[in-house]
Amino acid sequence: MSAPANDVQDYVGFDTITQQMERKFLKRGFNLNVILVGESGMGKSTLVNSIFASHLIDTQGRRAAQEVIRKTTEIAPVTQMLEENGVRVKLTIVDTPGFGDQCNNEGCWVPVIKYIKDQHAAYLERELKPNRERIIVDTRVHACLYFLNPGSRGLRPLDVEVLKRLTEVTNVIPVIAKSDSMTIEERTAFKRHIKEELAFHRIMLFPYASDDDADDDRVLNASIRELIPFAVVGSEEVIEVEGKLIRGRRHGWGVINIFDETHSDFVHLRNFMLRTHLSDLIEVTSQRHYEQFRTSQLRQIKELRAQQAAAAASGGAPPVPTQAQPQVPISVMQHQPMAQV
Amino acid sequence: MKEGSGEDQNVAPSMYSHVSRPSSHRNKNARKGLPFNVMLVGESGLGRKTFLNTLCESAVITGSEVTNAEQAHIAEPMQFKNYTVEMDEDGMKIILNIIDTPGFGDGIDNEQCFMQIQEYLELQFDNVLAEENRIKRNTKFNDSRIHALLYFISPTGHSLREIDIELMKRLGSRANIIPVIGRSDSLTPRELVLFKQRIMSDIVTHSISVFNFPDLDDEDEDAVEENSELRAMLPFAVVGCEEVINEDGRPVRVRNYPWGVVQVDNDEHSDFDRLRYVLLNSHISDLRDRTQNELYEMYRTEKLSGNTSVLANNTSQAVISAIGA
Question: What are the protein's UniProt keywords (chain A) (predicted)?
Fold first, then answer.
C-alpha cells in the first residue's frame, strides 16, 4: 500500500531558532561599550560622532584660555540609547580626557587600565553572587579605539607602553583620526611601519586568529588586518558639493567626503566595527578578556584562602598576603566550596 | 609708496614664490655673509625637517634616524643637530645656521627638555659674555646666539597644550620665539582662524613672550603696517614639502591629496612663503638686533648683578676666568 508523500514530514523546523533568537534579542536590546584613548586634539569625539551618525559626545579639549590644563587622565563615560529598525542598543562611550597631554606622561594609562579592569571585576562580582540577576548588566569594554598621531614615523614610546597594556585587557582598534594631512604614500609607509613595530613587540590586536575560523572569516579578517591602522577622517558637518549634500571637510584646495573610500578608510572602519564584527567584539570580550581576568582573579583568591587556612592550622597570625589583593571581595566567595575554584 | 626706498623694486626672491615682494631696505653686510642662527623646536611629526628642507630649497636633512622596528619604543634623548646652509636672498648672502632638536617631546617624560634648551641658549649668551670681557678679543668670534626660535605647534584645533605653554614661557626671555602651526593642511580655513585666535589668547593669558613684530621706527608707516599684518598672522600656519611638479613650465611645490593639491608657496594655502620672507629678508635684522639689544642685554644684567654665589654656581668657567683675568 502506498503512503501519500505529503504525510511524511521530514522538515523538523529547528532552523527557526534564528528567528526566535532574533525576537528575544529585539525585546532585550544589547549593550555596547567603547573606550577612546588618545591625546586631546586627535579627533576622538568627532570620529565617534561620525561613526554613530549622531552627536554623542562633546570634545573635552581645551578651548578657552581660562580652562585649566588637566593634570591626570579622567574617565568620562556617556551613555545613550540608540535605536535602529526596532533594535535597541545602550551605547556607552568612555572618553579619557587628559591622557597623554602632560609634559610628563608617565603612568597616564593607569586610570584607563583600572577602569577596564573594574568593569570586568564588577561583572565577576555580580556573576558570583548566590542570587544573581537573570541578565547581568554588561559594562565591560567591548572595544578600545586607540588614536595614533599622524606624522609620526610609527609608534611612539608612549604608544608602545600603552598598547601593550591595553591589548591585555580589551579589544584594541588603532586608528589615525586626522589623516587628512597625510598623502596616500605617507599613509602606506606609516601603516607598514606600525605593523612591523606591532609585530616586533608582539602586540595582539582584534580580530584574533582562531582555529575554528571559517574560510570566509579568515579572508575578511586578513583584509581588515591589511587596513590597520585605519586612516580615517571624521566630520559632523554636512556640506554641499555640486548640488549634493555630503558629510565632509572643506579645505581651500578641495573637499573631503568621509564616505569616499579613496579619501579615507572611514567606511571600512564603520563596517568593521558595526556591520561585520560587532557581535564578535562583544563575544570576544566575554570569552577571551573577561575569562582571562576571571581566571587570574579566582586563582588569587584561592591562593589567599590557602594561605589563611595554613596560618589558621599552624595557630599563628594570618600571614601578610604576598600577591596583589584580588579585586572581587572575598565575602562574595563565602558560599563557594573550594573544589569548584 | 616712499620714493627711492626700494619698494619700487619688487623682487621674487624664491623661485617658488607666487608674489613678488619689496626688496628689503634694511639689509647690511650684503656681501660678507650675514650669520643667522635659527633653532627649530617641536615634537617629531610636526614637519620640522620638512620645513628646513623647504626653506633651504634642498634636502638638508635626509632620511630618518630610526630605521627599524626595534627602536620604536626607545625614547631617544633630545639632541642638538647643526646644519649650515649658505643662502642667497635677493642679493644678500646669508649664512643660515639651523639647530634642530630631534627628540624634543617624544618621550614619555619630557620635563628635562625645557631645561636642556634653556641651558643651550644661555650657554651661547655666556660665550658672548666671556668673549666681551676678554682683554684680547677674537675678531673672528663666532656668534652662535639663537636669533629666532621656531616653535612647532600640533594642529589640534583646540588650544595650547601643557608642553607648548611650558616651553614658550621658559624660553621667551632667551630667544625670539616665533610660534608656528605644523602640518596646517590638516585644518580647514575656518578651523585655522579659530585655532590661531585661541593660541594667541592662550599666549596673552599665560604672559608668554613671543616675537610680536615690534615697531622699531614709528615713523615708517609701511613698516608699521607690515608689522601689524604679520602680528595678525601669528602663529604662522606652515605646510612643508619637497615634491616639485611642473605646472605650465613653472616649478611648483605641492602636496598631492586625492581631494586636491596643496601648493606650499601659495599664500592662500599656507603662510610658509610669508614666514620665509620674514626670516630671510624683511625681519632678519630686527631679529638679530632684538637678540643682541634686548635678550642678551637682559641676560647680561641678570648675570652680572646676581650675587656671587649664584654666579659661581651657574656661570661657566669661561666667564669666571675672563672676568677675573
Answer: Cell cycle, Cell division
Quick: pLDDT tens for B37-54.
999 999 988 999 899 998
Question: What's the pLDDT band for B244 if we cut at 50, 70, 90?
Answer: confident
Q: What pLDDT score was predicted for residue B284?
A: 94
The answer to whether the CB atoms of B257 and A253 lie below 8 A apart is yes
Provide the shortest C-alpha distance from residue B72 to chain A (in Å): 6
Which one has a higher pLDDT value, B154 or B61? B154
Q: Which long-range contacts (CB under 8 A, 24 or more apart) does A278-282 make?
A: A278/A32, A280/A206, A280/A207, A281/A32, A281/A142, A281/A143, A281/A171, A281/A206, A282/A30, A282/A32, A282/A138, A282/A142
- Report helix, strand or coil for B253: strand
ipTM exceeds 0.90, yes or no = no
Contact call for A103 and B155, based on CB within 8 A: no
Give B57's contacts (C-beta < 8 A, 6+ positions apart). Answer: B14, B15, B16
Cell of A230: 585605519
Q: At what angle do helices B111-132 and B317-324 cross, to 10 degrees?
A: 20
CB contact under 8 A, A151 and B165: no
What is the per-residue pLDDT across B178-202, written as a single tens digit (0 to 9) for each? 999 999 999 999 999 999 999 999 9
Neighboring chain B residues of A64 at a CB cutoff of 8 Å: 159, 198, 201
Q: Which three cell numbers stand for residue B314?
A: 651657574
User: What are the cell numbers at B204?
Assistant: 596673552
Work out how many CB contacts closer than 8 A connect A with B.
Answer: 153
Chain B, residues 72-131, CB within 8 A of chain A, namely 72-75, 106-111, 113-114
pTM, rounded to two decimals: 0.86
In chain B, which residue's Cα lies nearest the Cα of A43?
B156
CA-based nearest residue to B185, from B272, B243, B250: B272
Question: How many angstroms separate the CA atoms of B251 and B192, rounded?
Answer: 27
What is the maximum span of chain B, computed from C-alpha positions, in angstroms?
A: 67
Of B46, B66, B73, the CB nearest to A153: B66
Mean pLDDT for all residues in chain A? 88
Cell output for B168: 614658550
Using an 8 Å CB-CB cutoff, list chain A residues near B206.
Answer: 65
**pLDDT tens readout for residues A246-289:** 999 999 899 999 999 999 999 999 999 999 999 999 999 999 99
- pLDDT at B311 > cutoff 60: no
**Which grid coordinates belong to B51?**
620645513
Across chain B, mean pLDDT equals 84
Residues of B in contact with A249 (CB under 8 A): 188
Q: What are phi and psi of A222, to 5 degrees?
A: -65, -40
pLDDT of B3 = 36
User: In angstroms, what is the C-alpha Rg of chain A?
Assistant: 24
Q: Which of A39, A65, A201 sits opposite B159 (nearest CB)?
A: A65
Judging by DSSP bridges, how do beta strands A244-251 and A238-241 pair with one another?
antiparallel
How near does any CA of chain B get to the CA of A189, in Å? 12
**Residues B109, A263: C-beta atoms closer than 8 Å:** no
Q: Under a CB-based contact definition with an 8 Å cutoff, are residues B106 and A156 in contact?
A: yes
A100 and A38 in contact (C-beta within 8 Å)?
yes
Taking the C-alpha atoms of residue A27 and residue A24, their distance in angstroms, rounded to an integer, is: 5
